[in-house]
Amino acid sequence: MASMSPFHAICSLRVHEHVAERIRRHIALGRIEPGAALPPERELARLFGVGRATVQQAVGLLEADRLIETRRGRAGGSFVQEPDSAATAAEVRARAADIVAALDFRRVVEPAAAALAAKNRRKAELDELRRLAEPGSRQRDTAFHLALAAASHNGLLVEAVEATRLRMLAALRMLPVSKAQEDDHAGIVAALAERDAAAAEQRMRRHAERTARLVRGMLKTL
Description:
The protein is mainly alpha-helical.
């Protein structure tokens, strides 16, 4: 009888695939918005500590995935493309179970991050959260939640919030930015300003539950 081993073969990504994945992550999280240009190849090579040929291979992968478009000429460069609505809907349908799991995990993680941020936030972080809580786009919404996690000053919570956000983002893109969401953000910022951890936790939980209801309702229509 063959023994059951807890070990599995490792599939290592090549260097250019690692670079492409890092850029893909930044695009997904809205750190590079649609229409914006990636840094020049020379700068990307310096930032990642790789050669320009590696960067060019990574850019080729992102072009093949239609995440970026490369333009030639004096005003050229690699530009982030707008997400395709049909492709986004298909992705959400295919990953519905993963998205629901992320929504449930979020209701545990983000209230805890908000409570800790109320205790640990700095003035500059509070000012940035106030700015991000102003009416804006879905990219600003994502930036708000990542900044809130960063204000907790707990690296594990930051990683958990970012990973959860990545799993939900395709579904979140399909929701309009609502007045209720903006009011929730303002309420969370107010709790942080007072360093009221209990209120910050409660308001974030209510916000996460509201979003979960909207996403679950949308999933039923796809």
